[in-house]
Design goal:
With 150 residues, the protein is mainly β. Helix content is 6%, strand content 39%. Strands 6-7-8-10-9 form a five-stranded mixed beta barrel. It has a three-stranded antiparallel sheet with strand order 4-3-5. A two-stranded antiparallel ribbon has the order 1-2. A hairpin with a 6-residue loop joins strand 9 (129-136) and strand 10 (143-149). The protein starts with 13 loop residues before the first strand and ends with a strand. 16% of the residues are buried.
């Protein structure tokens, strides 16, 4: 498997050449979660004690229970921390500069790219309300979690 050219258009897809055939391996659980988020039906997994986590988790990290229930992801979260990225990894080189943020959505925190504001904009701040969605990276068209200001 080479480092370049084998990545599919979806987050989590990895190419692998076997003879003349190329296989795609889905990131089971996460790809379905991205599909739901893109459709406006985001969810998180709730453990027996009410704690939240994200797919593809199959076991509650606090209790060890496999009894996880899908719950609706809140529509709006708040930025907890962010950073402006000027020197990007190869997957994001055409997107730079951009803002990576962690937003609190109650039971879970999501990491994503904050769009809809300039990376140098003083309007970016802790507590900024954002909505999660799925968009594509400019560099390689892969799907990513994106936050948009409310």
């Amino acid at each position: 498997m080479s480092d370049e050219g084998d990545r599919g258009g979806e987050t989590g897809d990895r190419g692998c050449e076997t003879g003349d055939r190329e296989h795609r391996i889905a990131n089971t659980g996460f790809d379905e979660w991205l599909d739901a988020l893109a459709a406006g039906e985001g969810f998180y997994l709730e453990g027996p004690e009410g704690d939240g986590s994200l797919p593809p988790r199959r076991v509650d990290p606090h209790t060890g229970s496999t009894d996880l229930e899908e719950q609706p992801l809140p529509d709006v979260g708040a930025v907890e921390t962010f950073t402006v990225v000027h020197v990007a990894s190869p997957e994001f080189v055409d997107d730079a500069p951009y803002v990576t943020a962690v937003a609190d959505f109650g039971p879970v925190q999501l990491t994503g790219v904050l769009r809809g504001v300039e990376p140098e904009d003083d309007a970016i701040g802790l507590g900024m309300e954002v909505e999660p969605t799925v968009e594509r990276r400019e560099t390689d068209d892969a799907r990513i979690v994106v936050f948009r200001p409310v």
